[in-house]
Each structure stands twice: as C-alpha cells, then as structure tokens.
Specification:
By secondary structure, the chain is mainly α. Helix 1 crosses helix 10.
Length: about 210
C-alpha cells in the first residue's frame, strides 16, 4: 500500500513535532563530527562511530566483547569495498535520483542487510532497519531511512524491492513538496525551521510520526 504523501502543511507539522525529540539530532550531529568530512567505512574509526549511532537510533546491535572479533567493523568495511562505487555521489539528492540509481541502491541495501553484524552464541545480520539507516548516514540527501513499521505499513514487506519502492515513493513526495513550496531543498529546510536538515530526513520525520507512532 502506497499512502499519499505529505503536502507542505503536513510536512511542516511533522517536522515541528519531531523537533521535540532532541536525542536523535544530538546523536546525528555527533556522528557527523566523528566522521568529518564524510563517513568512509574504510577508515577504521568510522564503522565504530556508525555502530554507536545505529544503536542510539534503536538498532540494538551488540558491541563486540573483549576478545571477540569486530564482526560489524569488518563486515561493513568489506561491504564498502564492494559497493561504494555504486552509490549515488555525495551531493546526490532524492528528488533527482534516477530509476537506475534507485535499483542499484536496492542491491546495495540487500547486501548490507544480510551482512554479519555480531558474533557470539546468537550471531545476527544488520537487518533491514539498520541497513536503511546506514545508507541514509552514507548519503543523507539521497536516501530515506525506514523502520519495520514504516516498511510494513507502506509496502507490506522489507525486501530489496520494497526498499527500492520506498525510495521511489520518497522521490515522488520530495518532488511534490518542492513543487508546492517553489523552493529548493536548502531553502525549504530553512523555511520549515530546520536549516541544514535533509529533505530525506524531514520526509522520514513524517513517516515516523504517521506510520510508526500510533
């Protein structure tokens, strides 16, 4: 089920409501500082910073215990070596993604979601939510994150095809609010009182409050 997207008034309301949650913004700014000038998973400290951020956003990926291998760090670094060249450029934005770029992001997502994340008696993979959030962290202007509730309520599944469908839906929404406002993305964020906030995240604010918080 693809729900109608937000108009400008609904987006404004969601962004203002989400601004009351200070924790996510603090953790995001901390990640940006720890990985400046850009998140690069080939830099050893960056996977650790990404893991801390994912856990601050509720992903619950266990940190390695003393003597355990750093499964998450090795896994996402290996994923980066395979897929970094296939991601949209750092300046890409959601409204301008091509269908081919979205299809490649679906493949990137599939491989990342299946990547090992923890060791121990009950090892686990990154999974759909953490993979989507990690891709958002890597390309914040181009990629919307999601969680299980958003994925299930909007698309009925958390498959790679559903993830690509979510990005196509987000692209449609982005084009709609930009056309209604008559503004570019940066000017729209400033007009909504959240200067510097990517439109992808403002659309996710709307999704979270509409489909996750019931």
């Amino acid at each position: 089920m693809n729900a109608p997207g937000p108009d400008l008034a609904a987006l404004r309301e969601a962004v203002a409501e989400f601004a009351r949650f200070a924790g996510p913004e603090r953790s995001w700014q901390h990640l940006l500082r720890e990985t400046a000038p850009a998140l690069d998973l080939s830099v050893p400290a960056h996977p650790r910073a990404l893991l801390a951020w994912l856990n601050s956003w509720g992903c619950r990926l266990r940190n390695p215990r003393p003597g355990e291998p750093d499964v998450f760090g090795a896994s996402v670094a290996a994923w980066w070596s395979r897929w970094a060249a296939h991601l949209p450029g750092p300046d890409a934005c959601l409204a301008r993604l091509t269908d081919a770029e979205i299809d490649r992001l679906g493949l990137c997502y599939a491989d990342l979601a299946a990547a090992p994340a923890t060791a121990g008696a009950r090892p686990r993979s990154l999974g759909s939510t953490a993979a989507s959030k990690a891709l958002h962290a890597l390309r914040p202007r181009a990629v919307m994150p999601w969680d299980a509730a958003i994925a299930e309520r909007l698309h009925g599944a958390r498959t790679p095809a559903s993830y690509a469908a979510h990005l196509r839906l987000g692209r449609e929404w982005a084009l709609g609010v930009l056309a209604e406002s008559g503004l570019g993305e940066e000017a729209l964020a400033a007009e909504l009182g959240r200067p510097g906030r990517p439109l992808t995240k403002m659309l996710d604010d709307y999704c979270y409050l509409t489909f996750s918080v019931l």
